[in-house]
Amino acid sequence: MATEQATENYTVEDLVALNPYNPDILNDLEKFVNEQVSSQTYNLDANLSLLRLYQFEPERMSEQIVARILIKALMAMPGPDFSLCLFLIPEHVQMKEQFKTLIVLSHYLEFWDEAAKNRNILEVVPGFEQAIQAYAVHVLSLTYQKVPRPILAEAINIEGLSLDKFLEYHAANSGWIIEKGAQSQVIVLPRNEVNHPELKKNAADTVPFEHITRIFPVLS
């Protein structure tokens, strides 16, 4: 009853300011995350408070809510929000597929943002962007069996008709298969010993995920 009265009399921001470690506000903070998604607003402090509460009460953690917090943090880049949030999420949760995807995506975004800032340095060497795009595709092939079109677009920094041509080229020359997904196209990548472990001949050939996540912040 006390929690209901507090919710009625205070905003979520007030509740966080008064006592950010109060487990009674956890449900309010989860609802607030969904409100941020539906209203296209953002409150980093409230989201960090929720992640801290999850640390104290891991059995109450909602992976769906955590994923939404990370996506909102990605949208705030190049700010440090994503790293601040990720620091509060247990490693075993980070290793789940949807969170691995967001972590890899964060590195793509960081790389292209830094590349844009340093274009005057990079443009003196022709072919740099194309080489990094090729490497991004290589990394994706080590991480995914299927890649949603938006993830690929962020990874190689190409959109629209240019991306259509890029997909057509690789469908014709690299064995890519383009499928229609529920919300966007899905690119099926060729099978290899990393994205299809059953093909693996030697465990020593495995590329650890932590190596992949270090690839893209090369300019920072």
From TrEMBL:
Instruction: Tell me which residues make up the CSN8/PSMD8/EIF3K domain.
Output: 62-186
Q: Which domain of life is it from?
A: Eukaryota
Q: Which GO terms describe its molecular function?
A: ribosome binding; RNA binding; translation initiation factor activity
UniProt keywords, alphabetically = Cytoplasm, Initiation factor, Protein biosynthesis
UniProt xrefs under HAMAP family: eIF3k
**Similarity field:** Belongs to the eIF-3 subunit K family.
Function recorded in the entry = Component of the eukaryotic translation initiation factor 3 (eIF-3) complex, which is involved in protein synthesis of a specialized repertoire of mRNAs and, together with other initiation factors, stimulates binding of mRNA and methionyl-tRNAi to the 40S ribosome. The eIF-3 complex specifically targets and initiates translation of a subset of mRNAs involved in cell proliferation.
Q: What is the protein's name according to its record?
A: Eukaryotic translation initiation factor 3 subunit K
